[in-house]
């Protein structure tokens, strides 16, 4: 259903060290953990500067040889979805960015001047990849079909990794009774749509820079194109639950965002972050710090490139302390291991690893272009040459590597 809301454009615990790869491989271990991540894994806030030694010359020394279908066709509750009004389309070939600060529900064409609607829905093209035009350059990764498929694949993988849970915060009752939920950086909206189906009494709002959400959605789901790092139009104390998944890596000012989340949550409401720690880990010695492994190099360069563009790829490792500093209480953490590749013996984890490897392989080009090109000033040729070794490394099942996947949730004090 189209939203009534005005103002938006437009749809216990420690990290991994105690698990062993053997456990992963045998499938006998519960990989959930509940404590602080090891101090050594914590990273500092992004500085926005480019380390001089981040620029390779002339080609980086790669040391080693790293669900659901898109929406209108989504199965399941298709019949219960309603069609929002079609909005004028610019043909998808526009190169002009949206610049209006007016924010409206883009699914509601009757409330949007066609020109704004079309600029909000525009895209920019760069090196054969498609990016969001609204707040052009804010998000470093593409929004094209490949990226949308990757996001949906990661959604399916994340559900499997989390034993089919869509969330961990204790908000089930609030959602069943009927509350307000906000999803920041909703992407294709797949999480919000599945939540909307599961909790019909709750109103779900998904916000993203990119207009890549479907027109057929459950009637309690609303999408808006907006930059969640700008002030929100929502009243204070509005939301029962705010969800942020696979998106923290791109937040420029986490302190400001946490302050905003705090302000707009109801007293007693919860925020939940779900995010990978994007450093390949290994428990069985098949990959050590000395092992030449180009995928580890890739992730390290990606972190440097993202820092140059203004965000911290591994911000999740600092989040618990930041939540506490922002006034949140009852901060809880669950950590899973997300394998990269089909090396685990356990069937569920092998499937997760398969999805993660595919999503990684499909994403290498899009992941690297702006962070490596714009951020680290590599040439396209340098990037492509480096990716040859990275692809070999990602596909090499001798390396039993995984990313820790952290779920961290916290409560705004009740009064
Ligand atoms: C990797 S996708 C994750 C999508 C979704 N959360 C999921 O888990 O399937 C990250 C999304 O965050 C969006 N995003 C990043 N920064 C944003 C911002 N400041 N405001 C709104 N959306 C943002 C991007 O456009 C992108 O669609």
Summarize the structure.
InterPro entries: SAM-dependent_MTases_sf. By secondary structure, this protein is an alpha/beta fold.
**In what range is the share of β-strand residues?**
15-25%
Fold-level CATH name:
Rossmann fold
Q: Assign a percent range to the helix content.
A: 25-40%
CATH class reads: Alpha Beta
Tell me the distance between the termini.
34 Å
Q: Within the largest sheet, what's the order of strands? A: 7-5-4-8-9-11-10
Determine the mean pLDDT.
79
Shape: globular
* CATH H-tier superfamily: Vaccinia Virus protein VP39
Indicate the low-confidence ranges by residue numbers: 1-116
Number of strands: 11
CATH architecture annotation: 3-Layer(aba) Sandwich
Query: How does the helix and strand content classify structurally?
Result: alpha/beta
Order of helices and strands: HEHEEHHEHEEEEHEHHEHHE
Chemical compounds bound to the protein: S-adenosylmethionine
Number of domains: 1
Q: Helical element count? A: 10
Largest sheet: 7 strands, mixed
Radius of gyration, in Å, reads: 21 Å
Describe the structure.
The protein has helices at 21-26, 114-120, 145-161, 172-177, 190-198, 254-264, 294-309, 319-325, 347-375, 380-395, and strands spanning 82-83, 123-126, 129-132, 180-184, 203-208, 216-217, 221-225, 239-245, 265-276, 329-339, 402-411. With 415 residues, the protein is an alpha/beta fold. The strands form three sheets. It has a seven-stranded mixed beta sheet. The two termini are 34 Å apart. The protein is globular, with a radius of gyration of 21 Å. α3 (145-161) packs across α9 (347-375) and α7 packs across α10. α5 links the parallel β4 and β5. It is built from ten helices and eleven strands. The chain has one domain: Rossmann fold (3-Layer(aba) Sandwich), CATH 3.40.50. Mean pLDDT is 79; it is low at 1-116. Bound molecules: S-adenosylmethionine.
């Amino acid at each position: 259903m189209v939203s009534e809301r005005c103002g938006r454009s437009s749809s216990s615990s420690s990290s991994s060290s105690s698990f062993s790869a053997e456990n992963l491989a045998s499938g006998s271990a519960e990989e959930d953990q509940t404590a602080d991540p090891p101090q050594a894994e914590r990273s500092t806030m992004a500085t926005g500067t480019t380390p001089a030694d981040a620029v390779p010359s002339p080609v980086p020394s790669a040391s080693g040889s790293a669900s659901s279908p898109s929406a209108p066709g989504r199965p399941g509750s298709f019949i219960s979805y309603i069609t929002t009004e079609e909005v004028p389309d610019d043909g998808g070939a526009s190169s002009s960015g949206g610049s209006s600060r007016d924010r409206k529900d883009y699914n509601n064409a009757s409330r949007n001047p066609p020109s704004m609607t079309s600029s909000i829905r525009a895209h920019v093209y760069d090196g054969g990849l498609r990016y969001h035009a609204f707040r052009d350059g804010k998000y470093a990764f593409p929004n094209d079909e490949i990226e949308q498929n990757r996001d949906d694949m990661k959604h399916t993988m994340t559900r499997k990794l989390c034993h089919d849970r869509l969330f961990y915060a204790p908000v089930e009752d609030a959602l069943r009774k009927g509350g307000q939920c906000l999803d920041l950086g909703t992407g294709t909206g797949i999480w919000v749509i599945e939540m909307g189906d599961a909790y019909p009494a709750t109103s779900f709002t998904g916000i993203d820079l990119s207009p890549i959400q479907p027109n057929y959605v459950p009637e309690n789901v609303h999408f808006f194109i907006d930059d969640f790092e700008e002030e929100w139009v929502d009243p204070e104390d509005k939301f029962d639950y705010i969800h942020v998944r696979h998106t923290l890596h791109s937040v420029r000012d986490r302190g400001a965002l946490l302050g905003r989340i705090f302000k707009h949550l109801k007293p007693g409401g919860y925020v939940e972050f779900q995010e990978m720690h994007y450093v390949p880990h290994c428990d069985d010695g098949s990959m050590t710090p000395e092992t030449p492994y180009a995928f580890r190099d890739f992730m390290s360069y990606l972190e440097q490139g993202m820092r140059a563009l203004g965000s911290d790829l591994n911000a999740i490792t600092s989040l618990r302390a930041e939540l506490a500093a922002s006034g949140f209480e009852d901060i809880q953490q669950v950590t899973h291991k997300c394998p990269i590749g089909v090396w685990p013996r356990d069937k569920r984890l092998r499937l997760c690893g398969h999805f993660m490897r595919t999503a990684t392989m499909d994403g290498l080009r899009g992941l690297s272009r702006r962070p490596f090109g714009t951020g680290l000033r590599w040439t396209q040729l340098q990037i492509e040459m480096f990716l040859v070794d990275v692809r070999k490394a990602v596909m090499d099942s001798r390396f039993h590597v995984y990313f820790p996947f952290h779920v961290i949730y916290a409560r705004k004090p009740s009064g």
